[in-house]
Amino acid sequence: MLKQAIAQIKRRFPAPEVSAHCDGPCGVYDPASARIAAEAVVSLTNKILNLDPPQGNDQATLASYHNTLARYIQIKEEQAEITKREILILWTDYFKPHHLERYPDLHDKVWKATKLCSTCKQKIDLDSANQLMDYVKEIHDIFWTTKERNDVVWYKAS
């Protein structure tokens, strides 16, 4: 009885057909999260490179140094992974074939950026971190151009 009533309602008031071109609602994608995470990679790489090892054999000072170094490394690796994930979300969920027609090097830029994320996790290399920021900027510029938005300014917090 209930099934028949629901079927009659569906026939009388059919739902309109809808479609979407991306996984999430349009407008949720933003390369800002990749930029913030990539900036953290640069910042943490600088902090690690500027961290002076303690002199002497004081165990408490040595333990504190290793604790700080380990925390910096962990955060750097986490942020590099977040950067990679955010770039891949844009690549797989936002960018479409017509974007690639306009930017045929987009696949290469994404591939290089994500490879740099891995390099930044593996090494303490400021050049790689800065190159990652450069690629994130290029992807940022392409993203906003595809949205016909020229009012979104690239900026860095640091």
Task: Based on the model shown, name its key terms.
elongated; 158 residues; mainly alpha
Structure overview:
The protein is an all-alpha fold. The chain has six helices and no strands. The longest helix is centred in the middle third of the chain and has 36 residues, at 59-94.
How would you briefly describe this protein structure?
The chain is an all-alpha fold. It has helices at residues 2-12, 32-50, 59-94, 97-102, 106-122, 126-146.
Give the mean pLDDT. Answer: 92
Which structural class fits the helix and strand makeup? mainly alpha
Count of DSSP H/I helices: 6
Tell me the major beta sheet: none
Instruction: Tell me the β content.
Output: under 5%
What Rg do the Cα atoms give? 23 Å
Instruction: Say how many strands there are.
Output: 0
Give the uncertain stretches in residue-range form: none
By oligomeric state, this entry counts as: single chain
N→C terminal distance: 66 Å
